[in-house]
Amino acid sequence: MGLFILRRLGVMLLTALCLTFIVFFLTNLGPNLEKLAKTEASVRMSDDAVTTWLANRGYAQPMLVKYGEWLGVLPGYVIEGTDGVTRGLCIHPDQKPEDAHKFCGVLQGDWGQSSVFKDSVLSIVGTRLGLTGKLMLWVLIVMVPTALVVGVLAGMNEGSRTDRVLSTLSITTTATPEYVSGVVFIAVFASAAMGLRWFNGSATSAMAHATFVNFTLPVLTIAMYGMGYIARMTRASMTEVMTAQYIRTARLKGVSFRNIVLKHALRNALIAPFTVIMLQFPWLLNGVVITETLFNYKGFGWTLVTAASNNDIQLLMGVSVVSVFVVLFTQLISDIGYVFLNPRIRIS
User: Fold this and answer.
1) Are 79 and 91 in contact (CB under 8 A)?
2) CB count, 10 Å around CB of 346?
């Protein structure tokens, strides 16, 4: 197990480097840098002025060099600008060049400054990630148990009316995108025109204090979409397990149906749904973009939209790093979980 985890960590590191470099390359293309210069300095800058502005701030360097500096494995640039000001990646505005650190990248904990929020990227990402983590927690609390119960009930009663009703419900929720269900929820339960103002249409107040009134709609909007998929996978696994030979043997031995389901069938049936549940973490982290924007909940997804729409390169890279880490880490946990769910699975 230890050797397997070390190998997977090595693969994760290489994958993270490749993915972050792709994002870094795309965000540092010429048009994006030109837009950044005009946003930071002046919209009416000439092409020569844009070139000078970018050169004075290290953007004219080769792509691999800039990526190495951002990562923190290469020394930060120090450039004597045409305006006589010495600038550097590690030189802060209130700091002398000789007092600056040589390396200051992601590995050193310096993720840069956001051009939109005028604050540390690491601080912004940490705050917004905490808000989305709160939303994800309640979504998982609602989504996972409900989906497992629906899937197990449908799988235990294959072909029955219960199975058909629950399967239809699962397909319907999965086929309904968040932007549709969210708008419907707002129109029905948070609109004065309907006379049913049971919940708030905006979840901004839930950032400071989440209540049943201001947090129910965004939680249900996200939970309903993933609930059907998990329920369908659970039903398929449960149906397969209930027809297995060892289940038939247990029935012939007189084992109660309740013990058959809880002690024998359920554990094996949860292997495939476990993978789907683990895949929900990266989806929840990045798939909440629509829901957080729709309900004005300023979490991780909302920050991603803001960074992309305002060409905030440093913040966009910070969000990308967290997203890549979450995806790779949840996949590692998923692989390790297989062994505990099914003892017959061994890692050679």
Assistant:
1) no
2) 9
Q: What is the DSSP letter of 61?
A: S
**Are both 326 and 216 inside the same structural domain?**
yes
φ and ψ at residue 15, rounded to 5 degrees: -65, -40
Tell me which of 51, 76, 108 is where a domain ends. 108
Rounded CA-CA distance 176/182 in Å is 10
Widest CA span of the chain, in angstroms?
89
Contacts of residue 288, Cβ cutoff 8 Å, sequence gap at least 6: 132, 135, 136, 222, 299, 300, 301
- Residues 133, 30, single domain; the answer is no
The burial of 319, by beta-carbon neighbours within 10 Å (0-12 exposed, 13-18 middle, 19 or more buried), is given as: buried
Give the pLDDT confidence score for residue 65 in this predicted structure: 93
Which is it for strands 78-80 and 86-88: parallel, antiparallel or unpaired?
Answer: antiparallel
Angle, alpha carbons 318-324-325 (nearest 5°): 90
The CA–CA distances, whole Å, from 184 to 181, 212, 220, 263, 326 equal 5, 18, 12, 41, 31
Do 47 and 140 share a domain, yes or no? no
Reduced to 3 DSSP states, what percent helix, strand and coil does the chain have, rounded to the nearest 5?
Answer: 70, 0, 30
Are the beta carbons of 142 and 223 closer than 8 angstroms?
Answer: yes
Angle 76-78-82 from CA coordinates, rounded to 5°:
145
With tokens 């009416």, the residue in question is 44
The residue range of the domain holding 87 is: 2-108
* Amino acid type, 268: N
pLDDT digit string (tens) for 271-320?
Answer: 778 777 877 777 777 668 888 988 999 999 899 899 988 888 899 999 98
Q: For residues 166 and 176, what is the distance between their CA atoms, to the nearest angstrom?
A: 16
Same-domain pairing of 74 and 221: no
Separation of first and last alpha carbons in the chain:
9
Same domain, 170 and 289: yes
Q: Read off the pLDDT band of 70 (50, 70, 90).
A: very high
Single out the residue of 135, 121, 124, 111 nearest to residue 285, CA to CA.
Answer: 135
Tokens read off for 107: 């590995």
Rg (CA), the chain: 26
pTM over 0.90: no
